[in-house]
Known about the structure:
4-stranded mixed β-sheet; alpha+beta; 38% helix; disordered C terminus
Amino acid sequence: MGMLIGGVWSEEDRIWSDGAYVRSESAFRGAMKRETITALRQEPDRFLLIASESCPWSHRTRLVLAVKDVDAVAVHLAHGPRVEGYSIAGGAPWTVPGTDRSIRHLHQLYSLGHPDHTGRATVPVLWDKVASRIVSNESSDIVVAFDQAFGETTLAPRGLERASRQTDDRIYNTLNNGVYKAGFAKSQEAFDVAAQGVFDTLAWLDQRLATSRFLHGNVLTLSDLRLFPTLVRFDLIYHFLFGCSRYRLRDLPSIWGYARDLFSHPGIRATVNFPPMIEAAYCNDGRTGHSLRPCLPEIDWDFPHDRDALGTPWIQRRDGELVPFGSNDQA
Length: 331
């Protein structure tokens, strides 16, 4: 993986403690500042979102832009071989917007705006082209900033603040990040604890979604968009490569219906590109020792009913059967 130490790239990693994977804190947390949200609203072309199709954390930021139909913020998808971390443009030189500097690796963007930075060079990155600096590399801040800056409606309805925070915290700690705690564990104890948390949370979600279209009832919220990137990667990556193989997403009828329901939204579907996810997981993560792509299952993500976007009819998922909400067959 590697990291920057004092602005200089190193192959050293500092992500384990007693055999357990410990995700480092995001170093740049400016996206939630009022002046940044105001600037996003008034000068959206001042900013650039750098993301990756393989990364679930940057996926959630793109989901907010897609669901809110925002195209004013430019998006650059970092891609290419993982040499010195993320390649910024397939390994070719890339001119940083707002500067005359050319870079090949994402970590060079970090060093450009913050010469003495120590930490991992991760996506997403919200880049300020005027100030030539990173505003934020924390996805949870960026999604809130995008939600507040764009559109007439919010994905964080009033009255759901506490419930959303509790739901998001549990899902992040035991599922979003839990799969990585399992996949990168270096001790059996650390793996067992993480994997148990993953499947406890999936069971809790499956029960919850048996009677609710979304995580907070009938309204799509940021909580759903934080969860979806993990679900869409689960059966292809986390189930196989990360050892979270007790059962698949498709074995959980309520979650599987919910995930496909979200996927059927045109904006959400457009953000999902499976080949880069698989390439990054199996060929670029440095753990398998080879670059062979496994024989993976074919998964049908199409939702089996006609509908417009996320409108009616709401489909109740129970015992693996899809029936119209309000049907007497729900019991």
